[in-house]
Amino acid sequence: MSAQVDSLIRGVVDDLPSRINVGVQITPEHYALEKESIWRRAWMSIGHTQDVPNKGSYFVYDIPTFNYSLIVVRGQDDQVRIFHNICRHRGNKLVREPVGTRAGFTCNFHGWSFNTQGDLRLITDVNEFEKLDKEQLGMFPVHTEIWNSLIFINLAKEPHCTLKEWLGEMYGQYDNYFENQEKVASFKAIVNTNWHLAVNAFTEGYHTLYLHKSTARDYQGGKSNPQRHRPHMDFFDRHHRYSAPGNPDKVFVRGEKLAAKYGKLMIPAFDFNCEGLPLASTPPSTTNGHLMWLNFFQTL
Ligand code: FES
Fold it and tell me: Which residue owns the Cα nearest ligand 1 atom 3?
């Protein structure tokens, strides 16, 4: 008989449905509605300020859902801004290299130039134009806010709420959480699926013992929690949050020891808890605390 771990559940769960009709959620018609009513209205995290470490650093971020290409750039004034990756003259794509450092952006179609703050600085052959107001022809900005070094965007014409309102209860709970965080690697996977299926799979740990048995065999669970029940779950008005159980019985091989030692910087929940966050049930010294997952995009 398996040991049973009681989850600490915070928040109102009485209204959660016990069954969900996924078939309705994954039709093209439903997705078309979701694009406008969810994704265009949501504040979405698209990067970290360390991704643009120096003045003039930029990266291009494409959003195929809306056929958008964005430029995330740290201006010469050290502020991170985001612009649509199109020239104000005839809409040519302004930047084609996905990442780099620039003093400004010059369009390769007719040579108009913009600085890293998005201002139009140069109109070539300017005397051939009548009544152009350079002040009005800067790059198109995207609504941007920074929260604990994470870069958020909102694609609505006017956001219906601020990022602070969007994050709600969680907004002030991570003030020291990401301190000393270090980005050491990243990877991207394009999954050919409807987003509901991907998100739903990530909101349960039921599968990990089985689906990940050959790739992540024993990093979670352990004798005290073999079915890997979530120790903590928070249900907020708009978001939810949970911790996943580490495995205090795991014996690290040499490479894993290194990853655990330095991985703490990547996942602060291993070693540290802020007031209001779910507490780790294993001592920090085991290096097997709880992975913290945040789902920023849930119901509106
Ligand atoms: S389209 Fe960019 S300068 Fe003409």
Answer: 110
